[in-house]
């Protein structure tokens, strides 16, 4: 056998003796997800109902939030967190976690940060919102009113419940409302867009305002107060008395664009300024 044939044979034997396994990025991700799932399942002792896997702090490593079912005497769900180095229970007070609703749970607020939000059952018809973020490798959770909803980027709304849609002749407030209040994520907390009262006289100076004031009055409503928020949203609180000595409370909402106001319609198919714009009830300066 000549030298060329020996070299060919030797090269073939060397290559044949080596075995290579190539993992795709999807395989690696799946393995990491499974590792975190198993870590939470092992630490909690319960099955995972729903998990949320992402890189929440932009460090290149994924973390996981997971809802697990606590079967001990109807204990409700628990919320757990896990990363490469630890796992811990974040929430366990016996109430339900609304993990099967369609609301966004993983919210990107900047190029390098995502936060996790979850609604929790409360007493009666109320609920509470939990917000979690990572800071210096630690998971930090805090309550954020009720009905926390991601709008876009760092913009969110909360929807605190109130019984302020109607006051009967005996002075009892009824009618459940969930009015949106606008808040913003600052990197480690939420801040609310502040509101200040403005006079009807000042409101009339905005282009288009007088037209809407006439329509509101024509629909049988009286203007009570006007709030201007720092993000340019204007709430006009109104009321209407009925034949039973009761009072209905509503609101008309506008967006301030330069020196003009634009009506914010909840449903463009509904006729009437108040009916198409109102969330029901009376807006306060703060939703928290």
How many structural units, i.e. domains?
A: 2
Mean pLDDT: 87
Please describe the biggest sheet, giving its number of strands, its sense, and whether it closes into a barrel: 7 strands, antiparallel
The separation of the N and C termini measures 88 Å
Classify the secondary structure makeup into a structural class.
alpha+beta
Q: Strand share of the residues?
A: 35-45%
* Inertia-based shape: elongated
Radius of gyration: 28 Å
Share of helix among residues?
10-25%
Give the tally of β-strands.
19
Order of helices and strands: HHEEEEEEEEEEEEEEEHHEEEEH
Low-confidence stretches: 1-23
Count of DSSP helices?
Answer: 5
Give your account of this protein's structure.
- It is a single chain.
- This protein is of the alpha+beta class and 288 residues long.
- It has two domains: 25-143, no CATH class; 195-277, Nuclear Transport Factor 2, Chain: A, CATH 3.10.450.
- 19% of the residues lie in helices and 41% in strands.
- It has helices at residues 3-17, 25-44, 200-203, 209-218, 273-277, and strands at residues 48-54, 63-69, 77-82, 87-91, 106-110, 113-121, 127-135, 138-143, 149-152, 155-158, 161-167, 173-178, 181-185, 190-192, 195-197, 222-229, 233-241, 247-257, 260-263.
- Strands 11, 12, 15, 16, 17, 18 and 19 form a seven-stranded antiparallel beta sheet that branches.
- The longest helix has 20 residues, at 25-44.
- The radius of gyration is 28 Å and the shape is elongated.
């Amino acid at each position: 056998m000549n030298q060329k044939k020996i070299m060919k044979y030797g090269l073939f034997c060397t290559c044949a003796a080596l075995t290579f396994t190539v993992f795709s990025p999807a395989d690696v991700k799946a393995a990491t997800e499974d590792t975190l799932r198993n870590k939470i399942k092992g630490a909690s002792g319960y099955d995972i109902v729903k998990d949320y896997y992402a890189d929440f702090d932009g460090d290149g490593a994924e973390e996981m939030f997971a809802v697990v079912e606590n079967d001990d005497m109807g204990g409700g769900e628990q919320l757990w967190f896990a990363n490469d180095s630890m796992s811990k229970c974040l929430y366990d007070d016996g109430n339900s976690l609304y993990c099967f609703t369609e609301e966004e749970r993983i919210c990107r607020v900047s190029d390098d940060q995502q936060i996790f939000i979850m609604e929790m059952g409360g007493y009666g018809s109320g609920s509470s919102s939990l917000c979690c973020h990572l800071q210096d490798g630690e998971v930090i959770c805090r309550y954020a009113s009720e009905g926390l909803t991601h709008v876009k980027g760092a913009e969110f709304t909360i929807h605190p419940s109130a019984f302020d849609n109607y006051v009967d002749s005996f002075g009892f407030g009824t009618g459940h409302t969930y009015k949106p209040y606008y808040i913003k994520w600052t990197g480690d907390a939420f801040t609310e867009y502040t509101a200040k009262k403005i006079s009807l006289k000042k409101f009339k100076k905005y282009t288009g305002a007088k037209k809407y004031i006439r329509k509101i009055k024509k629909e049988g409503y009286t203007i009570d107060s006007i709030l201007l928020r720092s993000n340019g949203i204007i709430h006009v609180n109104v009321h209407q008395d009925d034949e039973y000595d009761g009072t209905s409370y509503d609101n008309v909402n506008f967006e301030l664009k330069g020196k003009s106001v634009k009506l914010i319609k909840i449903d463009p198919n509904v006729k009437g300024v108040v009916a198409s714009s109102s969330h029901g009830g009376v807006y306060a300066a703060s939703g928290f």
